[in-house]
Every structure is written in structure tokens, then in C-alpha cells.
Backbone:
């Protein structure tokens, strides 16, 4: 099978406009004949479900949390990018497009990124109309801030809770449709399989997390908006419940998985304090607008209180290495720079895995009230977790797993290789290449859900002309039985080790061998160890309780079982990509001064993996990345 | 640190529940309350017992999924803090801590410490939105909004929908939650258009869900992890009164 991205022809700036005209439409009176399933209720899922219901489709939306308002999009702090150029500082759709392509280290699909930049302006208008209380200037107009990887101020924000406010906007739009009866909502319900009939995705199998009942839901199309897979690393900034099960099980049913090795490490998280830690907390990268990152120049100074170290003895390493972007260098670059200084033994805090983020200069320059207004909730959060006051001394930060650029492969219409299966938001691979810029995740989630899928899904219905699936189709019964057998098998093991202990071991292995820096020997070691660990899991895991009840141990075990399989694909992809790009840093491929060295001649492609069955190696398919408009250059933030 | 926990265990919504005692040993002061429960659960799982079921997700104080009445106070009594951000360094060595679910008629217990807060979603479905479809919206800067108005709206919009306000209230009233959403939207020019029907419909749904009335004891404001102000209840009462007097349609 060859991968066809279905990128429209014509000049870049007109592709989306032209494509929208070329897409086949579904007559308004016919829309209600189509059932659409949306899995996930974050920015992408909620916006898609609401928008499709407004158009007249019959929508069912599923989430594992107790309410659609809890999805992890809610935790995004800093902001959302849009090429509004309200600040008159030279921004444009083209500049946002170019920054995103460059930030992604020239590993994303040009046409998708341009469309993203194009619709970014509509997103802000939409959110304002919904009542999202964005920050305003005294004149009443929208305020902006700058963000990593950009030299213009194009980030819109609502204090440090932008994700929350955008999600509540989408949630409220969704609630309106639920109230009108246009969307049926299924909270506390987890998708456990995609059902394929005649080669098309025609429904899902779910487990009601309260009663344990397994049931089928047929539909004319299935939309996955189930987020990323950072939690395969055990410790990440993702919510506890975030998992890869939906996309992994879709992969096993025939959807290709693209670029799993592109994982993003966020430079500004609160450092790990011990083994008990259940998750890591991110401090918005917007803090880098006013905070200065440093470590002591001399190892001997690392144990001393920060305040006692004279300015001359401090190494503001981002400002030193990247003078033009300074503390706002992109995430991958900032993270690796922090790792380097800690590897040199100049890290601060427990275990020496931390660097300072200092607001003393900003407080002097702007006054503490301004800093409090901009970042107050972040400072409060830092104090709650660490017990330290960041107005008095610097914060300590360290990189942590945060976002995954890889995901299910999709074409320009956001449809995967399994026809009828659409993938939105972080769950797909399409827009961020090998590295995502700050404030772009919210933008992509909402772009996909509000402004792309509602157009493209109609084209699928109008051209595929598939028969309506019936829940009596034997494929549904078969999938239900498989899901039930999987759960029974987990419960029957009655081993000695808890799910958490397996998950923690897997996560530590990946963080060491496939984390911020990777090499061939380490990846091979991980690839040897993962199957061993997986075998042990299936022999010795302890899952208590029963099937037919609320059973959190069982839910968790299923997710970790999938991580155990997915981890192998992640390492395989990282091993095969013999170059460094964005979030994927291979130690063998770096410039003499330690920067990532891309290999455009051999690796300018999307790596899409096809499942071949249990115990068989997946097959690699390549989608070449053709740049019509931009020239692939070496990324430099110096 | 070591603690004795008295935890509410209840098999499901139709079974009676009761307190069980557990020992939490070797707890570090840097653990969050939920991480402490994780440790207790790991011990239970290792010995083949059913772990304590509780809700949590983001564990950074924003998703509103975590709950728990700790020592009689929702979210444990530290100002402006959710249970997931409550750290064990605030407890005393050897302390006995009771842990209960939210208790309100409108929030039935699902299992152990987990309750069903679907009533909140249904209140939002009744009117907690601006009726605009996707597309066709004016430019974001077309309608200027005073900074103070936007800020005040944001103060109300910060609500995370956790339900602590209901859990602490002797009447199990949801007024702070409903007032926060009504105020967030009614303050903004975009939300003013549906101001009357919004407040009427949301209040009607609130009553139908079985929440109690407000007697302004302000305990909700005291436990709210986002410190939503009681003054929003006054604002909602005003909006409600005005809508009734005008005879506005629902």
C-alpha cells in the first residue's frame, strides 16, 4: 500500500480554499442520517463533536473521565497562537506557518501546517464569541505575549489557565448540543476496540467503567481525539488517566502509526523529588518570557543558596549559547541545554537534576505586582508543590516528558489509513513535525475540531457511500468477545507485582534509553528488555477485583498492557531514524558543538508503521516530505 | 511520617458503606495526599485486597476530578488547594485522618470515595453556554471588553467544577458553582444577549437536581480551591430577580 497524503495541488496559500470547494457535500437534510462517534472530549474531541452536531450529524461522544470537562487539554497553561498580527509586529499567516515548519525541524507536512496557520485566526474569533475571557489591554482589545520559538507576540492567553478556558468554551458548545439532544454523551466509558467492516471503521467497542458492561456502538465514521502517549514514560506532565489504548488498538486494526519517536520534553517542569512521585508538573513556558535560566559556573557552588552566588559566577547558558532567542529558545533545544549542564555536574537541587529559573531581574524591572499579575497562579502552584516561595528565590526546573508529536498517520483530510477513521489533535501526527512550538497544541486541537473535520468528514460520507452498519454484524460480537477475553486474562493472572511497578520500570527504561538523548546501543538494549518485561507482566501482574464493577486496577492494567507493546514500536522507530531532528536526538548524529544533525537526503519522510500481527515486525511505509514553498534549512536559534 | 486513615468504603451505589482503618507507613512530607493514598493502595494490591477507589486525573489542581472530604473538610482545608495539591508536610506525624466522599443527595456515591457529579453537567447543558455555532463569528477585537470586566469574568470562569462547594454546604447547595458560570458569561457582552434565559434555566435545573437552597453561610467560598467569590452569588440573585421581574422567557 502506498501512502497518499491527498495534498491538494496548486499554490500553498490556496490549497485549503480550493480543497474546500472540491470536497463533496452532504445535503443538510441527509446529515442526520449519519452517525458519528467521537472518542475523547478534549479540545479536539469536544470541538469536533459540537461542530458536527451543529451541522446536523448524529453524534455520540465518549470519555473515560466523569465529565467531558476534565480532559487533559484543561491543564495547558500558557496560551494559543494565532496569526492575527494585532501587535503590528510583523506577524502573518506565512510567518506562523514558517515558524511552525522550522520549529518542527522540517519534518511536518507543509500543506497541513499552512492550513493550521490559516485557520488560527478563526479560532480566536470563535473562542471570543463563545465567551472565553482572554486577557485584555486597558483599551479593551485582546492582549498578547511572546512564546518560545517565535520573535513576534502572537500568543493569546487567559491568565495561566488558557487550556482550561478554551476547553470550557468547547465543553459548553458540546453541552449545548447535548442539551438539544444532538449529541449523546457517554462519560466514564472507555473505548477498547475499533470495529472494521469491509475495510472501513464502522464502530467501537467500549467498557462502561461503572458497571463493567462491554457494549458495541456502530457508526458511519469513528473520530479518535484521544491525546498523546507521554504516559508510556510513567512520569510525564500528562494526567494520570492519559493513555495510548485507543490509538494503539486502532493501529492493531490497520491504522498506520507515524513517527512515534518524536516525543517532546518540556524544559520547565518541577524536578522529581523521589520514587513515590506519580506525575510531574509543568510550569508554563511563558515563564521564560521574564525568567532567566541559569546554573552556577562552578560545580562547587551548586550546593550554596542561589542568592549567595554572584552574578559573575552564574552561567545564563541559554542566553550565552543562543543570543538571539535567549531564554525563549525552542523546547527541544532548551531541554537538551539543561541536560548538558546537569551532566557536567552543575545541576542544582536534590540529585543535581535541576536548573534555576530566576525572576529577580524581572521583579526589579517590572515590579512584583506585574509578575504576580502575569504568573501569580504558577508561582502559587510552585509553592504548593515545593513549599518554596519563588518571589523570594529562583524556581528550580528540569525537563520532563510533555507532548508527543507522533501519532496515527492521517491524510490532508485527517483520515487514517483505515477508511472512516479520523484522528484529531495530539492523537495524530500531522502538524508539528519533530518538535512542537509552545502554544501550538491548543491551536491544532481546535483547528482540527472546529475548522477541518466538519468539512472533510462530509466528503468521506458523500464519496464512500457505505452501507449502514448494524450492531448485529458478527464483527461487533467478535470484537466484544476479544475485549472480554483480554480483561478476563488480566484478572486471572493473580501475580505478585502491581501494575504500577511494571509501569514505573517501563517508564524508567524508556526515559534512560529513549528519552532526551538516544543511541543505538541503548535502544537495542531497550528493545531486548521490553519483551522480557512484557512477558513478566503477563505472568506476574496482580489485578484485583472483578470484571462487572468499577475496577480501577483493571482499567490501569489494560492501559499498561498496551504501553508494553507500544514501547517497542517507539524504540524501533527511534532506532531506525539514523539522524537527529527536533525532539529525536541521536547522540551519534550531532554537530561538533552538540547541535542536532539532520539527514535530509535519507530521512526527509514520515515513517508510518503497519501492524503485522502479534510477534511479527511491523512494516515501514514512507511518505516523502515534499516542500514546494520553503527551503529545508538548518535550524539555528543562535 | 506515619498516619492512621479512616476511609469510607462502599461497594456500589446500592450497598451500605462504612469506615475501614488503614495504616499509612513511611510517608514522605513531599508526597501529595493522593500519592499517600497511592502508597496505601499499592500495599493493598500487593496483598491481593481491593484498592480504595478515588477519582483523580491531572493531579495539578485544574481538572476538578479529585474530591475527598479530609478531616471533615472538602479538599482538606488548605486555602485555595485541591486534594491533589495538598501535601503531607501539612499534616502532623501520627495523625488520624478521616477520608470521606462528597456527601450530597445530588452527588450519589458510585464506589468508595467516588461520586457521580453528572448533575453539574446537566446544569451547564441547561444554559451554561453562549448559543453560537462554529463559524461566522466576528473578529475577536470587534467588541472591546474593559479589562476589569474581562478580569472579573475570568475570576468566575476559574471554577473547576469539583463540587467542594456542595460538599461543604449544610444545605448541599450548588449556588456557588451555578453563580460562577452565570457570572462568567453574563458579565461579557457576548453572553449578555442570553442573560435572562441562562439564569432562569440554570437555576431551574439546579433545583430539579435536588441541590439545597443558599443560606449564605459562605462555607463554599472558604473551601473553594479556586477561591471563587461569594459576591457572584449576589450577582446571580440580582440577574435572577431581574429576569423574573421582566417576565423573561426561558
Residues:
Amino acid at each position: 500500500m502506498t501512502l497518499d497524503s491527498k495534498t491538494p495541488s496548486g499554490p500553498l496559500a490556496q490549497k485549503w480554499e480550493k480543497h474546500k470547494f472540491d470536497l463533496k457535500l452532504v445535503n443538510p437534510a441527509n446529515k442526520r442520517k449519519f452517525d458519528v462517534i467521537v472518542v475523547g472530549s478534549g479540545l479536539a474531541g469536544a470541538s469536533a463533536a459540537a461542530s458536527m452536531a451543529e451541522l446536523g450529524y448524529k453524534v455520540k461522544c465518549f470519555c473515560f473521565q466523569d465529565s467531558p470537562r476534565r480532559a487533559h487539554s484543561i491543564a495547558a497553561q500558557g496560551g494559543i497562537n494565532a496569526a492575527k498580527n494585532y501587535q503590528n509586529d510583523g506577524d502573518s499567516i506565512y510567518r506562523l506557518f514558517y515558524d511552525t515548519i522550522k520549529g518542527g525541524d522540517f519534518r511536518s507536512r507543509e500543506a497541513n501546517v499552512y492550513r493550521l496557520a490559516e485557520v488560527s485566526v478563526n479560532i480566536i474569533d470563535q473562542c471570543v464569541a463563545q465567551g472565553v475571557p482572554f486577557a485584555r489591554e486597558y483599551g479593551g482589545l485582546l492582549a498578547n505575549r511572546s512564546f518560545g520559538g517565535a520573535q513576534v507576540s502572537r500568543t493569546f492567553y487567559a491568565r495561566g489557565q488558557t487550556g482550561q478556558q478554551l476547553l470550557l468554551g468547547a465543553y459548553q458548545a458540546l453541552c449545548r448540543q447535548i442539551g438539544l439532544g444532538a449529541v449523546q454523551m457517554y462519560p466514564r466509558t472507555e473505548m477498547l476496540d475499533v470495529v472494521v467492516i469491509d475495510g472501513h471503521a464502522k464502530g467501537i467497542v467500549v467498557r462502561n467503567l461503572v458497571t463493567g458492561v462491554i457494549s458495541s456502538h456502530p457508526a458511519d465514521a469513528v473520530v479518535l481525539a484521544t491525546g498523546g502517549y507521554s504516559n508510556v514514560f510513567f512520569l510525564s506532565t500528562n494526567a494520570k488517566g492519559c493513555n495510548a489504548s485507543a490509538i494503539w488498538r486502532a493501529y492493531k486494526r490497520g491504522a498506520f502509526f507515524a513517527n512515534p519517536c518524536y516525543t517532546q520534553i518540556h524544559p520547565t517542569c518541577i524536578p522529581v523529588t523521589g520514587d513515590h512521585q506519580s506525575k510531574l508538573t509543568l510550569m508554563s513556558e511563558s515563564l521564560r518570557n521574564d525568567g532567566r535560566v541559569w546554573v552556577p559556573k562552578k560545580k562547587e557552588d551548586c550546593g550554596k543558596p542561589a542568592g549567595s552566588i554572584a552574578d559573575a559566577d552564574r552561567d545564563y547558558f541559554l542566553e550565552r549559547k543562543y543570543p538571539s532567542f535567549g531564554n525563549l529558545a525552542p523546547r527541544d533545544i532548551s531541554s537538551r541545554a539543561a541536560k548538558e549542564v546537569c551532566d557536567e555536574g552543575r545541576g542544582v537541587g536534590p540529585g543535581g537534576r535541576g536548573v534555576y529559573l530566576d525572576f529577580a531581574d524581572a521583579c526589579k524591572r517590572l515590579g512584583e505586582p506585574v509578575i504576580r499579575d502575569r504568573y501569580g497562579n504558577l508561582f502559587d502552584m510552585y509553592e504548593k508543590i515545593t513549599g518554596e516561595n519563588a518571589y523570594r528565590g529562583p524556581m528550580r526546573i528540569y525537563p520532563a516528558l510533555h507532548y508527543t508529536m507522533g501519532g496515527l498517520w492521517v491524510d490532508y483530510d485527517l483520515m487514517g489509513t483505515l477508511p472512516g477513521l479520523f484522528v484529531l489533535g495530539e492523537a495524530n501526527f500531522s502538524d508539528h513535525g519533530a518538535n512542537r512550538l509552545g502554544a501550538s497544541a491548543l491551536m491544532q486541537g481546535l483547528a482540527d475540531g472546529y475548522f477541518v473535520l466538519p468539512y472533510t468528514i462530509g466528503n468521506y460520507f458523500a464519496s464512500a457511500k457505505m452501507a449502514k452498519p448494524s450492531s448485529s454484524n458478527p464483527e461487533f460480537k467478535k470484537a466484544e468477545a476479544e475485549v472480554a477475553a483480554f480483561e478476563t486474562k488480566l484478572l486471572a493472572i493473580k501475580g505478585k507485582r502491581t501494575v504500577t511497578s511494571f509501569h514505573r520500570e517501563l517508564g524508567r527504561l524508556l526515559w534512560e534509553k529513549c528519552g532526551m538523548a538516544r543511541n543505538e546501543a541503548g535502544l537495542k538494549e531497550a528493545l531486548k528488555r521490553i519483551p522480557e518485561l512484557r512477558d513478566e507482566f503477563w505472568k506476574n501482574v496482580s489485578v484485583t477485583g472483578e470484571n462487572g464493577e468499577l475496577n480501577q486496577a483493571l482499567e490501569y492494567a489494560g492501559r499498561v498492557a498496551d504501553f508494553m507493546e507500544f514501547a517497542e514500536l517507539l524504540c524501533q522507530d527511534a532506532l531506525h531514524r539514523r539522524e537527529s531532528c527536533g525532539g529525536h536526538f541521536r547522540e551519534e548524529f550531532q554537530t561538533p558543538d552538540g547541535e542536532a544533525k539532520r539527514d535530509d537526503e535519507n530521512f526527509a519522510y514520515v515513517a508510518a508503521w503497519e501492524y503485522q500481527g502479534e510477534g511479527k515486525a511491523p512494516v515501514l511505509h514512507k511518505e516523502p516530505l515534499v516542500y514546494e514553498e520553503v527551503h529545508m534549512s538548518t535550524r539555528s536559534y543562535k | 511520617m506515619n498516619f492512621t486513615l479512616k476511609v469510607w468504603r462502599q461497594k456500589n451505589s446500592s450497598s451500605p458503606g462504612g469506615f475501614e482503618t488503614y495504616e499509612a507507613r513511611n510517608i514522605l512530607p513531599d508526597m501529595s495526599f493522593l500519592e499517600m493514598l497511592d502508597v496505601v493502595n499499592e500495599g493493598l494490591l500487593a496483598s491481593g485486597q481491593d484498592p480504595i477507589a478515588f477519582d483523580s486525573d491531572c493531579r495539578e489542581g485544574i481538572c476538578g476530578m479529585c474530591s475527598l472530604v479530609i478531616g471533615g473538610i472538602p479538599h482538606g482545608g488548605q486555602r485555595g488547594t485541591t486534594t491533589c495539591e495538598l501535601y503531607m508536610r501539612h499534616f502532623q506525624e501520627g495523625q488520624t485522618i478521616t477520608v470521606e466522599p462528597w456527601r450530597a443527595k445530588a452527588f450519589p456515591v458510585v464506589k468508595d470515595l467516588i461520586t457521580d457529579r453528572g448533575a453539574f453537567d446537566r446544569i451547564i447543558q441547561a444554559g451554561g453556554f453562549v448559543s453560537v455555532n462554529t463559524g461566522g463569528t466576528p473578529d475577536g477585537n470587534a467588541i472591546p471588553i474593559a479589562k476589569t470586566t474581562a478580569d472579573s469574568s475570568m475570576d468566575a470562569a476559574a471554577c473547576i467544577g469539583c463540587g467542594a462547594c456542595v460538599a461543604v454546604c449544610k444545605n448541599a447547595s450548588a449556588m456557588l458553582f451555578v453563580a460562577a458560570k452565570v457570572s462568567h458569561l453574563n458579565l461579557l457582552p457576548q453572553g449578555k444577549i442570553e442573560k435572562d434565559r441562562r439564569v432562569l434555566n440554570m437555576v431551574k435545573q439546579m433545583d430539579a437536581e435536588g441541590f439545597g437552597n443558599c443560606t449564605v453561610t459562605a462555607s463554599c467560598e472558604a473551601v473553594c480551591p479556586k477561591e471563587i467569590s461569594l459576591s457572584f452569588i449576589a450577582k446571580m440573585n440580582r440577574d435572577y430577580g431581574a429576569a423574573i421581574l421582566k417576565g423573561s422567557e426561558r
